[in-house]
Structures are given as C-alpha cells and as structure tokens.
Amino acid sequence: MTTTTNPSAPAGTRIAEQSPLRHGRSLLATRTFQPGELIATFNRPILALPDGPGMRTTCNYCLRPSSSPTNPPVLRACTACHAAVYCGAACQRAHWKSGVHKAECAMFARVRANAGKDWLPTPVRAAVQVLMLLQARDRAVVVAFGPRGSLEGNVEAFRRDAAVWADFDLQGKASLVYGRLLGTNEMLGRAKEVLCKIQTNAFNRLDADTGAAGIFLDPGLAMVNHSCVPNAFVSFERRSAMLRAERQIEVGDEILISYVDYTAPKTARQEALRLYHFQCDCPRCKDDLDVYQSLALQDPTSLIRARWSLVQTLVAASTFAVEPLPSAILAASSLFQTTGGDAKLPYALSLSCLLATACEPFKLVAPFLPWRVKGVMVIAKLLSATAPLTASGKLAAVCAHKGLVGTLARSDQVSMCEAMLRLVLVWVEMGGGAEEVRREAKEMLGDIESLEGRERESELLRGWAGDLQNKEGRAFFEAVVLAPVRELAGWAVGIMDAEFGERGEGDGC
Ligand SMILES: C[S@@+](CC[C@H](N)C(=O)[O-])C[C@H]1O[C@@H](n2cnc3c(N)ncnc32)[C@H](O)[C@@H]1O
Q: Which residues form a coiled coil (predicted)?
C-alpha cells in the first residue's frame, strides 16, 4: 500500500496501521462504547451525491429528497446548468463554495446542450467530481485520492477482474469526456484508479423511507473494516454519517461494521463482498452460522430475548408448535440446564414439559421420532436431578420460583421420572434406533427400580407401559404423571416473560 497521510481519527478512536485481524488499516476504540452510543459523526464528506436521476429530485447539497415524508423541500434548479437542484439559496451557495458545483456546473450545461440529459450515471459523476477537485488541488481530495493518497483502491485486484475493469474503462472514459479532462492514457489510468477507490471506500447511502439513494465517501469513515458479526453500524442524515456501537465495544477492540446485509446467507454475503477483494474470516463465515447461531455465540441471553420478543403473537394465540416459538423455548431450556446451577434446573424442567406437551406433539406427530424421545429423556433427567432437592426440602432455598417449588413438592417426582423412562423405552422400540438412549434409560430405570417402598407405583407404571390403554395404569399415569407435568408446563410462559421479556429480570412466580 502506498499510504502517505492517514485521515485523522475521531475522539475515542485511533487508526492502526495494521488491523489486529489483518484487514489492513483499521479503526480501534480507545475507550468503551455502550450499545447505541455515538462513536463519531462524519460530516465533511469528500463525496455526497444523490444517485444519477435523483439529482433532479434531491437537493444536490443537503441531500433532502422531494419525496421526504416530513416537510418535503421545494427544489429549484441552478440557473446556469439547469441540472443540479437545491432546496434553497444556502445549499446552492454551500455546494458552490465547496468547489464541487463550481467544477461541474459548466459540464452539466454542456451535457444538457449536447445530449439533452440532465444527469450523469452516479459513478461517472462521482469520478468527475474527484478528478476536477484533484485538478483544482483541493487539499482533502489530494490527500485521499492523490498519487500517494490515503485511500485503499485494490487496483491490482480490480485489474484482474476483466468484467469490472471493462466497466471502469467505460466509466473512466465517460468521466474524461464529460469533464473535458481528455488527455493522455495516464489520465485514463488516473480516472480508473479513482473509480477503484470510490468502489472500495464509498457507502451506498440508501434511505429506506424515501427510496432515495446515493453515495457518501469520508476518508475517516473509510478506515472501518468489515465483519458479518459487526460491533458498530452506520446511519445517514443529510450530509452526515453517524457511526454507532451496535454492541459493547471495549478499549482496544477493532470497530467493525458490515458492508453488506449480514442477515443474508453466506453465499449472498460473499457475492456482495466480491468487489472488496477479501475473504471474510469472521466467526459467522468460518462456521457458516445463521444470525441466531452467531448471536448465541456471543450472548445466548440476547439471542433468546430477541427470539422471545419475535414470538409474542404466537404466544398470545397459544400456537406453541409454530416456529420459532419452540426453538426459543428450547434455547432457554438449554441455557437453564447449562448455566444457573440448581436454581435454574426447575425452570428448564418447566420449559421441557411445555415442549413435550404443547409444542412437539403437534410439530412432530409420531411420538417415536428421535427429537421427541430426546425431549422426554431430558424431562426424566431434570426430574432425577431435582428430586433429591425437593425431597430434602432444599429446593425452596435455591429456587426463587415459589409456584414451581410448590408443584414439585406436591408431585411424586420418582414416579414421574420412571414413567418418562418407560415411555422412552417404548418409543425407542417403536422407532427402532437410538441404542445410546435405550442404554441410558435402562440404567436410570434400574436405579429407580432398586428403590425400596415403591413396588406398587412401579407395578402400575410397568402395566401402563406394557399396554398404554391399561385402565388402572392409565389412571395412575394421568393423575400422578401427566397432571403435574401439565402444571409444570403452565409456569413456562411466565418464566420466559420474567427472564427474557421486556419487563426484565424476575423469578416468574
Ligand atoms: C473501506 S476499506 C477499509 C480500510 C482498509 N483496511 C485500509 O487499510 O484502507 C475496505 C478494504 O479494507 C479491507 N478489508 C475490510 N474488511 C476486511 C476484512 N474483514 N478482511 C480483510 N480485509 C478487509 C479490504 O481490502 C477492503 O477492500
């Protein structure tokens, strides 16, 4: 890279010559930024222009479009070229003073007279602006685009891409013709280099509300590298770009934005990144994760919060089998099983009971499907893990959820666990697989059968498992197993709301 002067870094950041992640130069945080916090405003762009035809419907200086939903501007054309429009005299003056319209006004008058057109394609107009300002020795433009300018252009990589290079050739020639900058081959080379730098560093400035598009280039903002798991994002307002933290950024962290729609699948992201000439090696790309998985990597609680807020309509309609509601509950159950210790195991049990009674039977109708068997096995394990705490009366001391503790205290957890294990064995037999699950269930059942004083319960459950329609066994199952399982499931939505809902942390009692 032939860098001379790097742009100055905004307060709270610094430019590193080599990114810690080997992305070339990069912007690093020198203080902590909270999610949503403004890192910097960039309001002295080198390029800020509407897209080609948009130059007739958007103020060419402040970029307010006539389709603006609030207070749409009345746009008046420059009386000299009749092409560039402005929302008022102040914007017209500022555009002239910046040197931009002073440089291009005569060109648009010519384009209008010779071609009957009021606008030029966006990259051509952008390249003409840069080339004319270079010729006028505009300091900021020389520092960024000059022979040893600060902006990365990936020129050699572009040169190897025949189709793109041919486009740049055409656009370069057009900018030299329209800008009356014709001269040597060297001038065409310079125009193509400018186009490479614009392609690498300019932002597509799309306003979703008004549909107005355009480009924006600020050399400071251009120091920010890409990740599909970004910690920052950019938004635009008129001629300003705001860089904000998307998540907590610590001192020394590289500030990373996504150059593309990071919710798109990997192949689409890679295609969109093709013109930046690098292979993204972010955690999402490395393991081809979807957005939920990548969020879970960093912060499983945020993932579940995001999912739980997404499924509120399904919860209100009690359509528990419709995705992504079951996945939200499953993710929360897994989290409670792996973090939070004994206090959260009853929470995981409640959620697993909801999955087994209200989600999975409707989603996966055949009971012997491996996922349903696994769900019942999880309930058995959670009953087994919490039973000693319930029996010793210690559960109330560790688990804050009085309702759950009460349900478990009134239940025969050992019979419930036995019933789940017998169900697993019946279903594994029907489904013809899962040797590992069968072995584990048999082992746990052996432990339960060796307990003294529960011969009658075991006999009833054995009878029920051998013949699910067995009257006595079925009545026992419904009263001693199914009723408490339903009661446990009944606490689940409250737990989810308290732990992951908008009302925040709580015990869901
Ligand atoms: C807008 S510039 C960012 C600043 C750049 N690193 C520099 O030194 O000027 C975009 C270019 O930076 C490099 N870049 C950005 N993100 C990258 C990443 N995740 N991995 C590798 N290179 C990256 C690529 O060369 C890309 O074309």
A: none
The two most distant CA atoms of the chain are separated, in Å, by: 103
**Cα 133 to ligand 1 centre (Å):** 25
pLDDT, one tens digit per residue, over 233-250 is 998 888 999 999 988 899
pTM attached to this predicted model: 0.66
Ligand 1 within 6 A of CB of 96: no
Compute φ and ψ for 16, nearest 5 degrees.
Answer: -100, 140
pLDDT band at 146 (very low <50, low <70, confident <90, very high): very high
Which residue has the CA at smallest separation from atom 9 of ligand 1?
152
Name the percent of the chain lying above pLDDT 70: 96
Question: What is the residue-wise DSSP string for 9-47?
Answer: PPTTEEEESS-TTSSSSEEEESS-B-TT-EEEEE---SE
Decide: 473 and 461 in contact? Cβ < 8 Å: yes
Residue closest by Cα to atom 19 of ligand 1: 226
Which tokens is 307 given? 């999912």
| CB-based contacts of 4, cutoff 8 Å, min separation 6 | 143, 148, 149, 150
Q: Do 75 and 85 contact (CB within 8 A), yes or no?
A: yes
Give yes or no for residue 150 CB within 6 A of ligand 1: no
- Ligand 1 pocket, 154 CB below 6 A? yes
Which residue has better confidence, 422 or 435? 422
- What are the residues whose beta carbons fall under 8 Å from the beta carbon of 409, sequence distance 6 or more? 390, 395, 396
Task: Return d(Cα 62, Cα 239) in angstroms, integer.
Answer: 6
Distance 189 CA to ligand 1 centre (A): 22
Q: How far apart are CA 399 and CA 218, in angstroms?
A: 54
Helix and strand element counts for the chain (H, E): 24, 12
Instruction: Name the token pair of 99.
Output: 């040197």
CA of 10 to the centre of ligand 1 (A): 19
SS (H, E, C) 96-162: HHCCHHHHHHHHHHHHHHHHCCCCCCHHHHHHHHHHHHHHCCCHHHHHHHCCCCCCCCCHHHHHCCH
Q: Which residues pair with 48 in a beta bridge?
A: 216
